[in-house]
Amino acid sequence: MSLRLRPLSREEHLAFIKSRPSVSFLQCPSWADVKTEWSSESIGWVDSAGNVVGAGLVLFRQVPKMKRYLAYLPEGPVIDWERGDVRDWLDPMIEHLKKRGAFAVKMGPPIVTRKWEADTIKKAIRDKSAKRLRDVPADYTNPRALEVAGQLRAMGWLQDDTDDTGFGDVQPRYVFQVPLAGRSIEEIHADMNQLWRRNIKKAMKAGVEVVLGDYEDIPAFHELYVVTAKRDGFTPRPLGYFQRMWKAMKAEDPNRIRLYFAEHEDDVLAAATMVTVGNHVWYSYGASANHKREVRPSNAMQWKMLRDAYSLGASVYDLRGISSTLDENDKLFGLIQFKVGTGGQAVEYLGEWDYPINKLMYKAFELYMSRR
After folding, report:
1. What are the tens digits of pLDDT across the range 58-82?
2. Which of 32, 77, 250, 369 has the most crowded CB, counting CB atoms within 10 A?
């Protein structure tokens, strides 16, 4: 395959994205506007006829006091991962990024490795037959993913498999998705577990209303988000991050991002952002209050978001990251427990891979990150 790599303009990058059924929102040019602590570049692969046949958003994190960078392609690049030798695509990318001053490249190939249906997961939990998702026989395995992994290792790409929860990567290796294509909304509702259906009904009976917000409502979302961060023990992003994300995504596409609120008797009890690229819809950030949890605002909000995704013609509603743990005593178990009730499927991606261009600097960077 004869391919050359060159920088893409923002317009060229967006045109390529629009030509695809979908790509990760982390590979859209607007994501560079969100991640202001990184510099960025759009790159494209061009065939012998001059057509753009692949693209990637590269984020560059500079080493302090040096003009050397970690080059990161979150959930990318967007190339044809399904056939041929990935070396044809990645060799010119590495060479280009080396000239840009990269000491290492990190990427997350958007290729599915395995899938587990909700019933399979529930049975494994009920039977206590496995502690981790990867120990449960998958309902679908992609042989191409194993082939790509072998090609990457042969090229010198590295993967850290020490964290079996699936949260060792920057972006989640395991996500939970509800397939929408070829199903009626009634079938989707019926495939939810009894608890989810009961909670949706309970929320409706209690008078929970789910409404759309706008830019001026982001502080209300952030207030709930800070409450959630304190409760769940993570460091919240600042208000400006979400305001910047809203502006950047709306400027790129008016339909790219939505803000939802679940309200009950003038109380805002839950909120979430929803992102759409092509036929893929993501639940990206969520938040909930500590009170009135008995009226089930989160279930009502998710059901509304899922129905809206269906109305938009989406083929999948993506609830994003889950842990791979099936241990009910693990603090991360609640993630999969909540999402499996939607009746969807757990999806494992190939995960993130590193290519050390300068091995000494890469090792020093790894040591620095491990001590943070």
Report:
1. 999 998 888 999 999 999 999 999 9
2. 77
The owner of tokens 């990190």 is 106
What is the predicted pLDDT for the residue at 64?
83
Measure the CA–CA gap between 165 and 167, rounded to whole angstroms: 6
Q: Which CATH superfamily is domain 4-108+352-371 in?
A: Gcn5-related N-acetyltransferase (GNAT) (3.40.630.30)
Among 185, 181, 165, smallest CA distance to 173 is for 165
Superfamily of domain 112-142+150-349: Gcn5-related N-acetyltransferase (GNAT) (3.40.630.30)
Chain segment 217-270, per-residue pLDDT in tens: 999 999 999 999 999 999 999 999 999 999 999 999 999 999 999 999 999 999
Q: Residue 250 CA to chain centroid, in angstroms?
A: 19
Q: Where are the domains of the chain?
A: 4-108+352-371, 112-142+150-349
Q: What is the pTM of this model?
A: 0.94
235 DSSP 8-state letter: P
